[in-house]
Amino acid sequence: MWGRALLLAPPMSFPAPLPNSGLRLRPDLPLCQTDLPLDWYQEELKPYAEEYLALPDRRPQTVLPWLDAYVRPAQEHFGESLLLLAHFYMGGEIVKLVERYGGSISDSYALALQAARQPEKKIIVESAVHFMAESVAILAAADQQVWITNPKAGCTMEMLAKDHHVLPIAEQLVERYGSELTVVAYMNTSGRIKALAGRTGGAVCTSSNADRVLAWARRDGQKVLFVPDQHLGRNAAARLGMDPARWLVMPDPQVFAGNYPIAKVDGGLAALDDAELLLWGSHCGVHSFFRPEHVTWWQERDWRVLVHPESPLEVVQAADGAGSTAYLWREVMEAPQGARLVIGTEGHFVTNAREQAAARGVQVMHLADIPEQELALAGCGCATMSRNDPPHLAGILDLLRQGKAPQANRVLAGDAVDEVTGELDRLPEAERATLVSEASLSLERMIAVVEGS
Question: 38-155+385-422 has which CATH code?
């Protein structure tokens, strides 16, 4: 029913393991990590949280010996088969802790490839949000296990594009347009949405390659449903020179929760028929608050402004550069001495970038760090990623060593977790196998597009 011949991607090739980012804990400063209330921890993890909360302070000389008592035995137990991962946006000093124990830090695209490019790693523990760990699991081999330190670590953007939101709309669109419709799923989606992209002849994209994947998806004049971030979709379309008059934003999922007839879109079916690009109505709570005036304020004071493409189109167009977290990190690390950079993205990322840059004589500020009241914003971090904290890291590694890790922390393709209750919805094995096939295809198509461009 989903139409379109499948693109046969070439065999996937994977680069070398991620390099060390150079992040280091400072012994004189406390860990910048907000403690979670005890009732936010799973029963199995509460003993570790109680110990952590009872520590006299959060300074590394206090926290590290406590953490070492759990992490080091797990590393000795699993040896070279253990791989620790974290995303650049992780709250507090978790990225530094993970890297201290030999783990890798990167953006979601590079993290997704880690299991496939390191087949010798059998136990993979990720401190990030659930969709990232699931992307690793989709590409993992049968003998590799993927675990997340906190299964309730979600993504506000992905939470507005669950399968029960998107699939009812996608089914109506396919019924109307058949094989003329292709779904492009941003990496910030569940495996169930990535599978939708796979079976509609579409692909996954990332913030660094969204324009290339969108161009590929449009190659036969396809109508594209871009899920979930409307801002990234707009920015990719603008970069390709697509006509904004033929972009259509779908209704706000916070209002309709996916339960509406497609004729209710702005302009009705006529507008839907004329549109080339259908943008799902979700967004990132961290990036969507930036405005062009924030960019201009810094530029007028001779700062170079770089932003993430999950920011609104007008912000990206006003900035001096835009790109993924990997791009932003590289720009900071390669900036010449004396450079002054303003970064518009997640707050914890900017804090870590500022620290690294200062040692090299480079100034880094957050786009929101404007003293004038009328332009003031909180340079907020990703609150859901911050749910991965030292007790979660210590607890899951210790329980894995003992063979007692809770199944809710095991990540299999197709898993859906309620970010509030932690309730797990796991697919039957046959359905999971189908999902892995379809979602893997969407990821392989992305890799083929990127490697072929």
Answer: 3.40.50.10800
> pTM for this structure?
0.84
CA 177 to CA 223: how far, in whole Å?
Answer: 8
Beta bridge pairs of residue 184? 203, 226
Cα separation, 363 vs 318, whole angstroms: 21
Q: What is the pLDDT of residues 208-251, one digit of tens each?
A: 999 999 999 999 899 999 999 999 999 999 999 999 999 999 98
Amino acid, single-letter form, for residue 115: A
pLDDT digits (tens, 9 = 90+) for 331-342: 999 999 999 999
* 199's tokens: 């079976």
* Angle of the 210-217 helix axis to the 230-240 helix axis, nearest 10: 70
Tally of helices (H runs) and strands (E runs) in the chain: 19, 15
3-class secondary structure, 424: strand
Q: What are the domain boundaries of the chain?
A: 38-155+385-422, 158-285+443-452, 292-375
CA distance 83 to 68: 16
- Integer Cα distance of 110 and 187 in angstroms: 11
CB 165 within 8 A of CB 253: yes
Segment holding 169, helix H or strand E: helix 163-177
Task: Give the Å distances, CA to CA, from 259 to 1, 99, 166, 168, 424.
Answer: 21, 43, 9, 7, 23
Collapsing DSSP to helix, strand or coil, 140 comes out as: coil
Mean pLDDT across the chain = 85
At the topology level of CATH, where does 158-285+443-452 sit? Answer: Rossmann fold (3.40.50)
Query: What are 158-214's pLDDT values in tens digits?
Result: 888 899 999 999 999 999 999 999 999 999 899 999 999 999 999 999 999 999 999
User: What distance, in Å, lies between the first and last C-alpha atoms of the chain?
Assistant: 30
Distance of CA 442 to the CA centre of its chain: 17
B/e letters for 1-28, b = 16+ CB within 10 Å, e = fewer, are ebebeeeebeeeeeeeebeebebebeee
CB atoms within 10 A of CB 371: 7
CATH of domain 292-375: 3.40.50.10800
Q: Please, are residues 250 and 265 in contact by the beta-carbon 8 Å criterion?
A: yes
